[in-house]
Automatic annotation (TrEMBL), chain A:
Species of origin: Pundamilia nyererei
Keyword Phosphoprotein: no
UniProt lineage: Eukaryota, Metazoa, Chordata, Craniata, Vertebrata
Entry protein name: Calcineurin B homologous protein 3
InterPro entries on file: CHP3 (IPR052490), EF-hand-dom_pair (IPR011992), EF_Hand_1_Ca_BS (IPR018247), EF_hand_dom (IPR002048)
Top-rank lineage group of the source organism: Eukaryota
GO biological process: cell differentiation
SMART domains: EFh
Cell compartment(s), UniProt: Cell projection, Lamellipodium; Cell projection, Ruffle membrane; Cytoplasm; Membrane
Pfam families: EF-hand_6
TrEMBL record, chain B:
Composition bias, Acidic residues: 741-751
Gene: slc9a1
Upper lineage: Eukaryota, Metazoa, Chordata, Craniata, Vertebrata
Domain Cation/H+ exchanger transmembrane: 79-472
Transmembrane segments: 102-119, 131-147, 159-181, 193-215, 227-247, 259-285, 317-337, 358-375, 381-407, 419-439, 451-471
Keyword Isomerase found: no
Keyword match Transmembrane helix: yes
PANTHER family named in the record: SODIUM/HYDROGEN EXCHANGER (PTHR10110), SODIUM_HYDROGEN EXCHANGER (PTHR10110:SF192)
Signal peptide boundaries: 1-29
Domain of life: Eukaryota
Protein name: Sodium/hydrogen exchanger
UniProt record similarity statement: Belongs to the monovalent cation:proton antiporter 1 (CPA1) transporter (TC 2.A.36) family.
Membrane topology qualifier: Multi-pass membrane protein
Length: 220, 751
């Protein structure tokens, strides 16, 4: 426990409700937050970019941007922030919380929508509510960016094929001259309904502090 | 109804004929054994006489010598019987809906055994050597080679828990309880001591992969449950091996010492890890060998089989776990081998493995039936009934207890329904029987064998038959139709990276972090060594995409020439997706690529039968002629043949749902089947992708029938027109027809 721990205890219950994490998990995340921010109140993009392990990640830019995206704060706001505080950090993290097995079907659907929304926001960079072909192309290009010299043509054709698939699944009958604007959120949901997002898009958040290496039970 | 009746009578006659054959051959065998000596002596005499003096006996124009071919003949007969049975069950669908195939096979085995016994012959027993060395490996290899890696690795903790702790619990519970039962005076089993009971427990506890596969394959249960039970059945081999040998050794000494127990634990680690290591070594060697097999493609599949088999045998030499070695070998070898071997070889490997495992599986169950009839049996009501009861009880308790523990660590918890299916799916099978058979001959052995057979019958018949209605009743999730789409693939990869990134930001090294590290290690070091040519740097998304496009092309061609147009669902084509007025990306398609594709499409429009007839000879001949034909042309040809061969090995009637909405192909693993490593064309992969999309964009010809790959299909609607006309049409449709010399090249290698 460092000396510069300024944990506003009274906020924790608030945060627990909003984000769904347990007290232990919030504590751990707060410590990490402090670590990343150098004990400041806010994290900037540079702080995140400094994480060495992220260097090998082909989509690190998108990930970092997602943290600063206002849409992920459940506030119906758009735009992006320059810095985020702990609460916002937590809100973004809460998207990756696994769903409780005791949750009802509606709750599961809500969680699933939430997670898909997060993904959608990552792709839809211009905030217009649809993923256009160009945006999708960027996604594929970024995915392949670390794999050596890949021609943009390849990325393009893959993105085109994917787009085509979405279009043909969701809007089966289009006249030859119609133009498919882009992937809306409903189409996005439809195309990814094969992947069980509730379970796939989650990571373990630890209850106990790994730094102190206490063997405790991992949270679910 | 008529056809069904006809086929059933057909089948009955077939069955009767076959039974007659078997009976006949055995009759002959025995007859021959007797008369063999006399005929031999007569022939000897005649020969010697012939040498010395004039022929006293006439030269036998037609003689009968059965002993000469007896063994292979009988083996073939048995295999034929197995195959006919398999065929029969599929011709009559009604029975196989209710009764799983394994039950029917055991029943047939009982029948055959009964018939053989009735003729006074000694029916063959399932020899343990035969089983462990010849019948079991193909099934395990098939399972291991096609093991779905993602669910397996995601659930490895759970699987190991069930395999190790679950089996241990079963062994000690059953062994202990049976010992308690043996103490009951009424049972007259006082002579069975604790160690023997424990030995019995170790034999009967292990869930059997053969039975599990046989039953679970038919009920199409969801992937998670399938991999849990199946993975458990594979990995518990190590535990079984150790405990079996441990108790067998100690049975002599009548007591287990502490050192013995400690050695047992150490032995477990040695057996399992050693087995895995042997498998890994063979797998790597196999992958490395496959890097060079481009020089002789025909023998490629053999390498796969032999390396795996050697891994199994090598592990068995040291009493390590052969099954784990085999699985490890298959799993390690597969991604690299598939990147290296040709498409035909891949198909060969796949079909041979399926074939062998299918035959093995059938033979095992038939032999189980026969061996039951063969006996000898010592039936002790109390022992047998209590064995069955305790097997069930211990399984249920074990699963419940372990799940309660495991669920603390799992993200996706196991529900009560899941637990029930896991418990109910714990089938015993031939491995237990063979292990029991290997016991030393004494009175206890027969007692054990009878009990083992009863348990096997119970699990296979009762549990096997009722699991399907129970699955329906409990509404357990079934297997998803895995219609993979490019979107899902993109997002699967995206998610992987995203979650790794989030884990990194969170600062803890979780599941994704290590997976990512492993992947990167694989990419930078391992692939470079084990994969030939430029395939080593091909990212997964691209190979996935290429493979998909290839399959689509084949599917389209197939559906076109099989005179069955897929139902039109979507009229969307690429034009709808690309922005109006957006400049068509200039694609620098290599001419050779384009003509390649054109050739493929054109040639496939021809009569398929013609192609089929000349398939095998022609391809092999070409391999031989490699040196003669100029390199460039030959490569193009191989490319085409590769596509063709894929097309040809997919049976034409296998197009249940038309691939119109999503791209789909058989629910397989991701395979680097595309492209040849020998190709010097540097932009092979990218340009193909270009070409294929390019094809989508040549829509100028009116496409009345539009499917998503509308444009290709419109060109491939050949049934009304004659082939020749089609070819011209196709070549006109695709972008600018190449210069004339290409036509010459075409004619040279079209059959």
């Amino acid at each position: 426990m460092g000396a510069s721990q300024t944990r506003p205890e009274h906020n924790y219950d608030d945060l627990t409700d909003k984000s769904g994490f347990s007290q232990e998990q919030i504590k751990n995340l707060y410590q990490r937050f402090q670590q990343l921010s150098g004990n400041h109140e806010k994290i900037s993009r540079d702080d995140l970019e400094r994480i060495p392990a992220l260097n090998n990640n082909p989509i690190r830019k998108q990930i970092i941007t997602a943290f600063f995206d206002k849409r992920n704060q459940h506030q119906n706001d758009v735009g992006s922030l320059d810095e985020i505080g702990f609460e916002q950090f937590l809100m973004v993290m809460s998207h990756f919380r696994p769903v409780n097995s005791t949750a009802t079907e509606e709750e599961k659907v809500t969680v699933r929508k939430q997670k898909l929304r997060f993904l959608f926001n990552m792709h839809d960079t211009d905030n217009d509510g649809i993923i256009t072909l160009d945006e999708y192309r960027t996604v594929v290009e970024e995915l392949l960016s670390q794999s050596g010299a890949i021609e943009t043509e390849v990325a393009r054709s893959i993105a085109d094929a994917a787009m085509l698939e979405v279009a043909s699944t969701n809007v089966p009958h289009m006249a030859p001259d119609d133009f498919y604007e882009g992937i809306t959120f409903e189409h996005f949901e439809q195309i990814l309904k094969g992947i069980e997002m509730e379970s796939r898009m989650s990571i373990r958040f630890l209850d106990m502090n790994t730094a102190t290496m206490r063997c405790g039970k991992l949270s679910s | 109804m008529a056809p069904i009746q006809r086929s059933s009578t057909l089948r009955l006659t077939g069955l009767l004929c076959l039974l007659f054959l078997v009976f006949f051959s055995h009759g002959f065998a025995s007859h021959d054994a007797v008369s063999e000596k006399s005929s031999e002596t007569i022939q000897e005499d005649s020969r010697s006489q012939a040498n010395s003096t004039a022929h006293k006996k006439t030269f036998p124009v037609l003689s009968f010598n059965y002993e000469h071919v007896r063994t292979p003949f009988e083996i073939s007969l048995w295999i034929l019987l197995a195959l006919f049975m398999k065929l029969g069950f599929h011709i009559i669908p009604t029975v196989s809906h209710i009764v799983p195939e394994s039950c029917l096979l055991i029943f047939v085995g009982l029948l055959v055994g009964g018939i053989i016994k009735a003729t006074g012959e000694q029916p063959p027993v399932l020899d343990s050597n035969l089983f462990f060395l010849y019948l079991l490996p193909p099934i395990i290899l098939d399972a291991g080679y096609f093991l779905p890696m993602r669910p397996f690795t995601e659930n490895i903790g759970t699987i190991l828990m069930f395999a190790v702790m679950g089996t241990l619990w079963n062994v000690f519970f059953i062994g202990g309880m049976m010992y308690a039962v043996c103490q009951i005076d009424a049972a007259k089993l006082a002579h069975v001591d604790l160690l023997s009971c424990l030995l019995f427990g170790s034999i009967i506890s292990a869930v059997d992969p053969v039975s599990v596969l046989a039953v679970f394959e038919e009920i199409h249960i969801n992937e998670l449950l399938h991999i849990l039970v199946f993975g458990e059945s594979l990995l518990n081999d190590a535990v079984t091996v150790v405990l079996y040998h441990l108790f067998k050794e100690f049975a002599h000494e009548q007591a287990i010492t502490v050192t013995g127990a400690v050695l047992g634990v150490i032995s477990f680690f040695v057996v399992s890890l050693g087995g895995v290591m042997v498998g890994v070594i063979y797998g790597i060697v196999g992958a490395f060998t496959s890097r060079f097999t481009s020089y002789s493609r025909v023998i490629e599949p053999l390498f796969v089989f032999l390396y795996s088999y050697m891994a199994y045998l090598s592990a068995e030499i040291f009493h390590l776990s052969g099954i784990m070695s085999l699985i490890a070998c298959g799993v390690i070898m597969r991604p690299y081998v598939e990147a290296n071997i040709s498409h035909k070889s891949y198909t060969t490997v796949k079909y041979f493995l399926k074939m062998w495992s299918s035959v093995s599986d059938t033979l095992i169950f038939i032999f189980l039936g026969v061996s039951t009839v063969a006996g000898p049996h010592t039936w002790n009501w109390i022992f047998v009934i209590f064995t069955v009861i305790f097997c069930l009880v211990s399984r249920v308790l074990g699963v419940i207890g372990l799940t309660a523990f495991i669920n603390k660590f799992r993200i996706v918890k196991l529900t009560k329904k899941d637990q029930f299916i896991i418990a109910y799916g714990g089938l015993r099978g031939a491995i237990a029987f063979s292990l029991g058979f290997l016991l030393n001959n004494n009175e206890i052995k027969n007692l054990f064998l009878t009990a083992i057979i009863t348990v096997i019958f119970f699990t296979v018949f009762v549990q096997g038959m009722t699991i399907r209605p129970l699955v329906e009743l409990l509404a357990v999730k079934k297997k998803k139709e895995s219609k993979e789409s490019i979107n899902e693939e993109i997002h699967t990869q995206f998610l992987d990276h995203l979650l790794t990134g989030i884990e990194d930001i969170c600062g803890h090294y979780g599941h994704h972090h290590w997976k990512d590290k492993l992947n990167r290690f694989n990419k930078t070091y391992v692939k470079r060594w084990l994969i030939a040519g430029e395939r080593s740097t091909e990212p997964q998304l691209i190979s996935f995409y290429n493979k998909m496009e290839l399959k689509q092309a084949m599917m389209m061609v197939e559906s076109g020439s099989a005179a069955k147009l897929p139902t039109i669902v979507s009229t969307v084509s690429i034009r709808n997706v690309q922005a109006k007025g957006s400049p068509k990306p200039s694609r620098a398609i290599s001419k050779s690529r384009e003509e390649e594709i054109r050739r493929v499409l054109r040639a496939n429009l021809q009569n398929t039968r013609q192609r089929l007839r000349s398939y095998s000879r022609y391809e092999l001949l070409n391999d031989a002629l490699e040196d003669d034909i100029s390199e460039a042309r030959f490569r193009k040809q191989k490319e085409m043949e590769r596509r063709m061969s894929h097309y040809l090995t997919v049976p034409a009637n296998r197009q249940e749902t038309p691939p119109v909405r999503k791209v789909f192909f058989q629910p397989e693993h991701k395979v680097y089947t595309y492209d040849d490593s020998e190709s010097p064309r540097g932009r092979a992969s990218p340009s193909c992708a270009d070409d294929v999309s390019e094809l989508k964009e040549t829509p100028e010809k009116p496409d009345q029938s539009s499917t998503p790959r509308a444009n290709r299909d419109a060109e491939l609607k050949p049934k009304e027109q004659d082939d020749q006309g089609d070819q011209l049409k196709v070549s006109r449709c695709l972008s600018d027809p190449g210069p004339n010399p290409e036509d010459d090249e075409d004619s040279t290698f079209l059959p």
